[in-house]
Structures are given as structure tokens and as C-alpha cells.
Design goal:
The structure holds 2 protein chains of 2 kinds. Chain A is an alpha/beta fold. Chain A folds into 5 domains: about 20-135, Glutaredoxin (3-Layer(aba) Sandwich), CATH 3.40.30; about 160-370, NADH-ubiquinone oxidoreductase 51kDa subunit (Rossmann fold, 3-Layer(aba) Sandwich), CATH 3.40.50; about 380-460, Ubiquitin-like (UB roll), CATH 3.10.20; about 465-555, NADH-ubiquinone oxidoreductase 51kDa subunit, iron-sulphur binding domain (de novo design (two linked rop proteins), Up-down Bundle), CATH 1.20.1440; about 565-624, Alpha-Beta Plaits. Chain A is built from 25 helices and 20 strands. Chain A is globular and about 90 Å long. The mean pLDDT of chain A is about 95. Chain B is about 45% helix and about 10% strand. Chain B has 7 helices and 4 strands. In chain B, strands 2-1-3-4 form a 4-stranded mixed sheet, with helices on one face. The model of chain B has no long low-confidence stretch (mean pLDDT about 90). Classes of the chains: A alpha/beta, B alpha+beta. Chains A and B meet through α2, β12, β16 and α18 of A and α2, α4 and α5 of B.
């Protein structure tokens, strides 16, 4: 156990020296995307082949390097999940994509033994081979701060975090910063809550620091519930110590001695990695009583969520940690005064805490140099949906949607046409072509009826029906409404009923106005953020895609061709051989005809079940 | 059917997490993992041990999606219907699985208690969309066909 700041410095220097001595390195991405595509198999094959071939290698950070072995390691998420499993060769920085176990022989012979690049494994676009990761368009416009370590270090090793300068900020704080100085630095930096609200972090901390009521708590919101968002998952799984360090600094600054991390149930690996990190930090004496002889004590606890989206809301989250139903309460009093166990509480999101150490280390001026006037720093985004390069990215605040979607994201999947991007999850909105040059920051999006939210960007192409998207989100919010307040519980249910009617072709005159009226009431009268923003996707799709609503309601037509109930099934005469299979499959007897002559569908009887299409051996039945 | 419930796992969880209200969710999670559901017998038992009302425990158990009062299958298949998976067509996967196993929105578990099919709002594996999670393992870029093939694979594993 470390007894002083000096001992911590010595340990860090030792870890850094070991890491610097690693001349050659193969880093395989161990993020969820790559693992699900077989990264573990690649790692195991590489290790066993190296053994077979008698090549000197190590899998762990080791103190001294004898005979220059190659280091083979698994890091966290590299972000470019679309083309995983990913493998990076250091020091050259070469990036190999879609690596298969069969490629390991060539990687060993060509790259490890001969120092040459395997070009066929490099990312290729429009005939250009991109060898170095930093040259790949996906990475070129990114600035990775909170994700900086994710693709570099082994998340299960505290030594590797230390080697990257880990716990330097915590050390600086313990070596003589006052609570006021820390809070000022954070306030000056302009850091705003990355969970979606964008509340100034420094102000929150100063409000808790002011409270005279002890004990106080630091709570980390790792209940990343927005569908289409996985940036916090990456930080928790791939760089857990960075988050812990942020929480510890928050504890020191506000006078709290206990930290609680609330992780959603769907992230078992994040729970395991955080537990491991807490055990390591405790063993080294970075957590516990009288840390490094400073007199400051801090203990960390983990709570697993149990599957309730509403627990991402502050007061619901603290209720859940207390062992209760996760229902929000009326505010004020605010969490900073009466939070967890009714005590003053700093509640921040994972990514917010992940920014803290760098701000303390490099200063608020450094942090402010990136981003826009009112939104400093960088923001992570999860890029998903109908996009060429799905993955996890981090860009300076103020980067435009066009840069994110087209330069980094590579445009629309399969050469499709851009239609809209859904931002901010179920609380957010849809943006269209006209917003592509809008800088992404907390304030710019509010003006056009969207929010940055936690950073989920779901890109949609021309085949996506926007009314269906609105229905999808309303279904989500209706399911996740906790039921405490009437506007949200009943309002989301009624809005969903109307939307379901519209996509089924039963929309009526006045439905749009009714939706707008309900949206207005829920937004004003709901108790918590979930309800207040529940209508966001509906309002924004009505605003920007009203003609699609009108086509569904008046013409009973889905312009995107997605809504099943609005499709017409027809048999193409030239392709139909008159086998009668469809007629026998049809549950309503809507298909009639004579054997060996083209059959016909009676549209009045057709219930659009699709049974005929799936059964046709000649692919003669089409949806139009 | 009379079923004897072994409370040892609860005693162990209470010992580990503490016999207070704030440990309730962690204890229920342990019980859910062990029994694969929350048998009704555990409510009076926990009420006494934790000095809480049965109603309160029941309230918590029914609030959270992860707790089930009915027995779940050995393989819990969660089809992700988060936004990213939804726009990359996750519903046909769900329908294929339900069709194959004779399950529906109401009937989620097969009679032999082998499979449970449910949806989940987001697995955070959006880059692998559409994704399916079986127990704790994620299967990426699924299609209705590969999902049905997965069922066979799981059956063999059993």
C-alpha cells in the first residue's frame, strides 16, 4: 500500500518506464463491438501462434524488457466498431481492420518479424489504402480527451493507467489544492454536464461544497439508458480509473467521503471492470481512509440498476440506490441539498467525471481552448443507424453535423440518401438536411428543437418513415414512464394511441393538432425530465416532416414505404407461374386465380400479413 | 405444485449486502440470478429479515424490468430494439424467434423453460446492430435466419 504522494510518483515513474520500453506493440480492440465480432478469437490465435513460432512476446506490462519482446495486448474500444475486429501496430500506428484469426500468420511473419505493413488488412476507401490510424478519415477530425486512453491501455491494469499519467490530478489535489481552488478551476473551464442537461459542473460542485450538512455524497450516473448511446459504457469498461479519479476529486472538492456508481444492468462488463478498478485503487491506498497520509478518506460503492430508464433522472437514481422504486420527486429541494439519503449530493454523468482529471492537470485555459464560447471541451457521440461508419467518436464542441456524419461517419450506408438524424434519444428531436451545418453544442440545438442529450446520433436514410420513428420513441417513453404523474403516464399513452392509428392508416383529421396539444400539456405539466421531454421526437417530426404525417392521414400512404399496414401487395403477372401456393397460404382468401395463369390479390380482403410474399417460390409478389 | 425454496442464497446475500433497505435491490438481483425469477415465498422471508413490509418489497420487484415473478428460461434472449437496432430492422428478428418457438408478446417463455424471448431498449452495442443478447453474451449483426440458427446452437449447448 502506498503511504505518500512520493510513493505514488515512484510507482507511476516505474510504470511509465516499463511502458516506454515497449518498442513494439500489437493492440487488439477489446471493446464490445469488436468482441462481438470475434476479437477475442483473434487475440487467442495470435498468442498461440506466437508461442508456436517461438517469437518472444509478453501479454502484460513488465518491469524490464529482455531481448525486445513484442507486447500483445487488448485495449478498450477504438471507436471504429463498423470495421472491427481492429488491431493496431505500434509504434507505426498502423490500423488493421476486420482482422480474422486466419490473418494471424501473416501479421506475425510480415509485421512482427519483418516490420512491414500488411496492406490488405488496412482500411481502404475509394482505392486509397490508409495505413496509419490517424490518417483514416474516421479518426482525422476527432479529438479524443475523455476517450484518450480507451484505445491505448489495458483497462484491467492500474499500472497502465498510471503510466499514462493516471492519478496525477488526484495527487495534485492532495498535495495542496483547496476545495475552492478545485471548484474554481472546474467553473473556469466551462465544463457542462455531459449527461444531457448541460448544467455547469463547477456551479453544482460549489453548491454542494457550500452545504454544512454532513455526510455528503458523490454519485456517478452510469445508467446510460438512451437507446443508441454507448459512450459511457466505453469509459466505464475501457478506462474505469479515469472516472474514479474524477469522482475522487469531486469528493475532495465538496467534502464528501463516499462515492456511489450506478451502472445499468445491461452492462455486466462495466460492473466487473469498475469493481476490479476499485479493488486495485483500494489495494494501492488511493481509496480508503487517510489516503496517502493526506487525512482525506474516500470509499467507493457500486450499484447495479435493474432495468428502469427513468433511473437516469437524478432523484429517481438516488431513490434506486436507497433500495426504493426509482421514481422521481418534485424539485426543489435539489439534489445538491437533499440528494442521496437526503444528504447533499454531487450527481454527475460518467463522461463529465472523465473530463475532470485533465482539467486539473492541464488547467481550465487549456480546456476552454477547445469547443465553443458557451460549450467548452469535446463531446463523445455514438454514431449509429444507417451510417457507413457506425462507432464511437469524440469531437470538439461546435463541430458541424455534416463533418460528423459525412467526414467521420462516411455518409449514408449502402450509398443511400440522408434524410434525418435523431439526436438526444427519446428526449431529443430529429434534424434534417437544413441543419447539417449547425455547430453541435448545448445551446445551438435548443434553438431548433433538439438537444445534444447524452450524444446518441441515429442517422436515418430515405427509407425511414418519420411517423414510425415518432411512434417508436413514444412507445419507448410510454413503457418507461414510471406512472407517478398523470401527464406523463396518461399523456404518453394517448399520444402513442394516436401515432399507432396514423401508421396503421387510421389517422383522422385533427390528429396532428391533438398530438400538438397533448405534447404541450405533457411538456408543461410532467414531473420530471423524462415526461417534460417525452414529446420531443413527435414535435420535431411534425415540425420538419409534416407532409409525411399528412400523407399517412389523408392519402393512407407511407412516403418512405416502411409502414406495413399502408403497403399494397401486388402479383407481377410476368413472374407469376400460377402455382396457387399464395392462394393456399392466404388466411383471408384474398388471392384468387386459375392454375398456370397469373393470380390476383383482392385489395379489399388483403390484411397485409405478408404471408404470400414469404411463400412465393418465384418472387412474383411485391410490396408497393 | 409445492416447491421448496432454499433460502440459503438469500441469507448469504443479506450477510454480504447488509440487512437494510438500501441492500434490497442487490439482494433481489442475487435471488433473480439464483432462482431465475422471484418466487413468491421469498417476499415474507425478506420482509422479516429486512424489517420492511411485503408490499414494499413487492413494489420494488414489480417496478424494475429485470425482476420477474414468473420463471424464466435457461436462455434469456433479449432482442435489442434500441433506435439503432430498430432502424436496422430488429423487429423481423424478434418475430422470427417468436414464430419458431411459438411465443408471443404475452407468452415469453417456452413450456420446457429453455428459452425466454423479450425485447430490451438498448444493449449499448449499437455498432453491431441489430444485436441480440443471450444471458450475458452479445451476438452482433443478426438476421432472422441467423437468429433461428442460434436457437439450434443453444439447444445443442444445453
Amino acid at each position: 500500500m502506498l503511504k505518500s504522494v512520493e510513493e505514488l510518483r515512484a510507482l507511476r515513474a516505474e510504470a511509465k518506464a516499463s511502458m516506454d520500453a515497449e518498442n513494439r506493440k500489437i493492440i487488439i480492440c477489446g471493446g464490445a463491438g469488436c468482441v462481438s465480432k470475434g476479437a477475442n478469437k483473434v487475440y487467442e490465435t495470435l498468442v498461440s501462434k506466437l508461442e508456436e513460432k517461438g517469437v518472444k512476446f509478453t501479454v502484460k506490462l513488465e518491469k524490464c524488457h529482455d531481448g525486445d519482446p513484442v507486447r500483445v495486448t487488448k485495449s478498450g474500444c477504438h471507436g471504429f466498431c463498423e470495421v472491427g475486429p481492429l488491431l493496431r501496430v505500434e509504434p507505426q500506428g498502423w490500423l488493421y481492420v476486420k482482422v480474422k484469426p486466419e490473418d494471424c500468420d501473416e501479421i506475425i511473419d510480415t509485421t512482427i518479424n519483418n516490420g512491414k505493413c500488411v496492406d490488405r488488412l488496412c482500411y481502404t476507401k475509394h482505392g486509397i489504402i490508409y495505413r496509419e490510424q490517424k490518417e483514416v478519415p474516421f479518426y482525422k477530425k476527432q479529438t479524443r480527451v475523455s476517450l484518450a486512453n480507451c484505445d491505448k491501455i489495458d483497462a484491467t491494469s492500474i499500472e497502465e493507467y498510471l503510466a499514462q499519467g493516471g492519478y496525477t490530478a488526484f495527487e495534485k489535489v492532495l498535495s495542496g489544492m483547496t476545495s475552492e481552488e478545485i471548484v474554481n478551476e472546474i467553473t473556469e473551464s466551462g465544463l457542462r454536464g455531459r449527461g444531457g442537461g448541460g448544467f455547469p459542473t463547477g456551479r453544482k460542485w460549489s453548491q454542494v461544497a457550500r452545504q454544512k450538512n454532513f455526510p455528503k455524497y458523490v454519485v456517478c450516473n452510469g445508467d446510460e439508458g438512451d437507446p443508441g448511446a454507448f459512450m459511457d459504457r466505453s469509459v466505464m469498461e475501457d478506462d474505469p480509473h479515469r472516472m474514479l479519479e474524477g469522482m475522487m476529486i469531486a469528493g475532495f472538492a465538496t467534502g464528501a467521503n463516499d462515492g456511489y456508481i450506478y451502472v445499468r444492468a445491461e452492462y455486466p462488463l462495466a460492473v466487473a471492470r469498475l469493481k476490479n478498478a476499485i479493488a486495485q485503487a483500494t489495494e494501492l491506498g488511493l481509496l480508503g481512509d487517510n489516503i496517502l497520509g493526506s487525512g482525506f478518506s474516500f470509499h467507493m460503492h457500486i450499484n447495479r440498476g435493474a432495468g428502469a430508464f427513468v433511473c437516469g433522472e437524478g432523484s429517481a437514481l438516488t431513490a434506486s440506490i436507497e433500495g426504493k422504486r426509482g421514481m422521481p420527486r418534485v424539485k426543489p429541494p435539489r439534489t445538491v441539498e437533499h440528494g442521496l439519503f437526503d444528504q447533499p449530493t454531487v450527481l454527475n454523468n460518467v463522461e463529465t467525471f472523465a473530463n475532470v482529471a485533465d482539467i486539473i492537470n492541464k488547467g481550465s485555459a487549456w480546456y476552454k481552448a477547445t469547443g465553443t464560447d458557451n460549450s467548452s471541451g469535446t463531446k463523445t457521440f455514438a454514431l449509429t443507424g444507417n451510417i457507413e461508419n457506425a462507432g464511437l467518436i469524440e469531437v470538439p464542441m461546435g463541430t458541424t453535423l455534416r463533418e460528423v456524419i459525412f467526414d467521420i461517419g462516411g455518409g449514408i450506408r449502402n450509398g443511400g440518401e440522408f434524410k434525418a438524424v435523431q439526436i438526444g434519444g427519446p428526449s431529443g428531436g430529429c434534424l434534417t438536411e437544413e441543419h447539417l451545418d449547425l455547430p453541435l453544442d448545448f445551446d445551438s440545438l435548443k434553438e431548433v428543437g433538439a438537444i445534444i442529450g447524452s450524444g446518441g446520433l441515429v442517422v436515418m436514410d430515405k427509407n425511414t418513415c418519420m411517423v414510425e420513428v415518432a411512434r417508436f420513441f413514444m412507445n419507448f417513453t410510454r413503457n418507461e414512464s414510471c406512472g407517478k404523474c398523470v401527464p406523463c403516464r396518461e399523456g404518453t399513452k394517448r399520444m402513442l394511441e394516436i401515432l399507432e392509428r396514423i401508421v396503421e392508416g387510421k389517422g383522422e383529421e385533427g390528429d396532428i393538432e391533438l398530438l400538438e396539444e397533448l405534447a404541450d400539456t405533457i411538456s408543461h405539466a410532467a414531473l420530471c425530465g423524462l415526461g417534460k421531454t417525452a414529446a420531443g421526437p413527435v414535435v420535431s417530426t411534425i415540425k420538419y416532416f409534416k407532409d409525411e404525417y399528412l400523407a399517412h392521414i389523408h392519402e393512407k400512404r407511407c412516403p418512405a414505404g416502411e409502414c406495413k399496414k399502408l403497403k399494397t401487395y401486388v402479383i407481377e403477372e410476368e413472374l407469376c407461374k400460377g402455382c396457387s401456393k399464395c392462394a393456399r397460404n392466404c388466411p383471408t382468401g384474398a388471392i384468387k386465380g386459375e392454375i398456370k395463369k397469373p393470380y390476383k390479390i383482392d385489395q379489399k380482403l388483403c390484411i397485409k400479413c405478408g404471408g404470400c410474399i414469404n411463400g412465393c417460390p418465384f418472387k412474383a409478389i411485391k410490396e408497393v | 405444485m409445492e416447491q421448496t425454496i432454499d433460502f440459503a442464497v438469500l441469507d448469504q446475500a443479506i450477510k454480504e449486502f447488509g440487512n437494510e433497505e438500501k441492500s434490497l435491490i442487490a439482494i433481489l438481483q442475487r435471488a433473480q440470478e439464483h432462482y431465475r425469477y422471484l418466487p413468491k415465498e421469498i417476499f415474507p422471508y425478506l420482509a422479516e429479515k429486512l424489517s420492511l413490509s411485503e408490499a414494499k418489497i413487492y413494489g420494488v420487484a414489480t417496478f424494475y424490468e429485470n425482476f420477474s415473478l414468473e420463471q424464466k428460461g435457461k436462455f434469456v434472449i433479449k432482442v435489442c430494439d434500441g433506435t439503432a437496432c430498430h432502424v436496422r430492422k430488429s423487429i423481423p428478428i424478434l418475430e422470427a424467434l417468436r414464430d419458431k418457438l411459438g411465443l408471443s408478446e404475452e407468452k415469453k417463455t417456452t413450456d420446457d423453460l429453455l428459452f425466454t424471448v423479450e425485447t430490451v431498449s438498448c444493449l449499448g452495442a449499437c455498432s453491431s446492430a441489430p444485436a441480440v443478447m443471450v444471458n450475458d453474451e452479445i451476438y452482433p449483426t443478426m438476421t432472422p435466419e441467423s437468429a433461428v440458427a442460434l436457437l439450434e446452437e443453444l439447444k445443442e449447448k444445453n
